[in-house]
Amino acid sequence: NGRPRYVADIFPYKGYIWNYGAFPQTFEDPDHTDKDTGCVGDSDPVDVIEVGQAVCAEGSIHRVKVLGLVALIDDGETDWKVLAIRSDDPMADRIQDIQGLETHMPGLVGATVDWFSKYKVPDGKPLNSWAFGGQAKDADYAHSVIAATHKAWSRLIHSENETGFALANTTVRTSPHYLCAGAASQKLRALTGASLGQALADSAQAPAKWHYVHNGMVTNSSA
Question: Which GO terms describe its cellular component (predicted)?
Answer without folding.
Answer: cytoplasm
